[in-house]
Design a protein that fits this description.
oxidoreductase; 8 helices; 15% strand; Rossmann fold; SDR_fam; 47% helix; EC 1.1.1.100; 2 domains; SDR; 3-oxoacyl-[acyl-carrier-protein] reductase (NADPH) activity; 7-stranded parallel sheet; alpha/beta
């Protein structure tokens, strides 16, 4: 299927690894140019060397307000057609264990920067009467996950923000959706497994078996599988899909509409 995104420019957060990198590489494969945003200058430079002019490295800390202003200016300068809001998730933990400082940090890293960057991009997208915004969150939006209270709380807030945004900006040609990944083979799942193992005082391998028992397909997702759906939602082929939260989880979510 031709996604009709060749020659278009997209921004991808967390592009140096995991799901973000997979999305960036899929977009490049389809002929698009990617502005990759992440903290790691070295990893971004390696991607730029690998993909040439189709990858523009832009190191930045997406939890820092001043950095987001600069990122927004860069994306406007390149007239991006779409933006992938993606960054590492908040640390695992329970309501009792986590400090208020950790709650404040989770607000900054999981919700606030997405609002700030969206607001920066809206004037340009309104003028173009076109723009696609894609938020990479978690199945915890639909089904809270044990030991991930920060993710459960703030990703649900992102869902409320995105749904409201699509109601307000749809008439201006702007669409927004959420992808809710389940367990994928990335460094993030390793962190979650190790924390769960420590809390239960069992091995990481035993915890992984517990996690996979919840997935009907019986395995971790592959980042490149996830990237296929992301690229589709960013393409003109998905223009009539907006305000949706779509699970990519191997059937894990028990919510009746997925």
């Amino acid at each position: 299927m031709d996604l009709d995104i060749s020659g278009k420019t997209f921004a991808v957060g967390g592009a140096s690894s995991g799901l973000g990198r997979a999305i960036a590489e899929k977009l490049i494969q389809e002929g698009a140019t990617v502005i990759g945003v992440a903290r790691s200058q070295d990893k971004l430079s390696n991607l730029a060397e690998e993909h040439g002019e189709q990858f523009i490295a832009f190191p930045a800390d997406l939890s820092d307000s001043s950095s987001i202003r600069v990122v927004g200016e860069q994306l406007i300068e390149h007239k991006v057609s779409g933006c992938v809001f993606n960054a590492g998730g908040p640390p695992p933990g329970t309501v009792f264990d986590l400090s208020m400082e950790e709650w404040d940090n989770a607000y900054a890293t999981t919700l606030r920067w997405k609002i700030q960057l969206t607001k920066a991009l809206l004037p340009m997208m309104r003028q173009a009467n076109y723009g696609t915004l894609l938020f990479i969150e978690s199945v915890s939006i639909k089904q809270p996950i044990d030991n991930l209270v920060l993710s459960n709380a703030f990703r649900a807030a992102v869902a409320g923000f995105v749904k409201t945004l699509t109601r307000e900006e749809g008439p201006n040609g702007i669409s927004a959706n959420i992808l809710a990944p389940g367990y994928h083979a990335t460094t993030r799942i390793t962190t979650v497994l190790e924390k769960a193992a420590a809390l239960q005082d069992i091995s990481k391998e035993t915890v992984e078996k517990q996690f996979l028992a919840e997935v009907p397909l019986g395995r971790l997702g592959k980042p490149e599988e996830f990237a296929e759906m992301a690229a589709f939602l960013l393409s003109p082929a998905a223009r009539f899909i907006s305000g949706q939260t779509i699970s990519v989880d191997g059937g894990m979510t028990r919510f009746i509409t997925g």
